[in-house]
Amino acid sequence: MSAEKVSIHLANILGKNLEKSDEEIAVLNYGLFVIIQAVYSIILILVVGLVTGLLKELVIISTFSAMMKRYAGGPHASTPNRCLSIGILIATAFAFLCRYFIEKLSIHHVMIFILVVIITSYYVLYLRCPVGSKEKPLKKESIRTRLRKKAFKLMNVYSFIVLSLCLIYSIYNNYLIKSILISILFGIILQIFTISKTGENIVMGLDKYLDKLYKVLH
């Protein structure tokens, strides 16, 4: 059962028992939906991570990408389930790339990679942030300015974390530090990619494909 159906069912039960108005039930439904969808996301990430052997990478990539998405925005699929499926699919692809980079990059290449990712991220944020969707068009300038400032502040925090981990890795040459560092970078890349025009087109293309697949199967 989808998170939307579960939240509606629970909201109606709780609303009737607590004698809430239709408006209060709608608010309750939205809150429950957010919580249930988050639980679904966590469970799916853990399952996919364990099955693919990419648990650490997938958790870090998804976490850092999701935190940035709160402010940078990005495209949304036509349904919550499709949005979740596409998000996990793309994050898993990035996790495979991440594992390859962890194994192949030397310390010097890691440093170059960091500089490229940070500079590119600030540039794309400057050009595109925040990116709205049909559900959240973000037309109000005050809201856009607030989200933009928060996105850049978070990017500053990310940069500090990445550079600090790079310093630690350069001193101790620890594999775990390296894997965390590169996973964070791919989490940043994932969100920057999704707010780019190319990323937006890919998400929308996958949404249309899943819609056709759903119609065929049903």
TrEMBL record:
The chain crosses the membrane at residues 38-62, 83-102, 108-131, 151-171, 177-195. The keyword ATP-binding does not apply. Signal peptide: none annotated. It holds the Pfam family AgrB. The keyword Protease applies. InterPro entries: AgrB. GO terms for cellular component: membrane. GO terms for molecular function: peptidase activity. GO terms for biological process: proteolysis; quorum sensing. Keywords: Cell membrane, Hydrolase, Membrane, Protease, Quorum sensing, Transmembrane, Transmembrane helix. This is Accessory gene regulator B. The lineage of its organism: Bacteria, Bacillati, Bacillota, Clostridia, Peptostreptococcales.
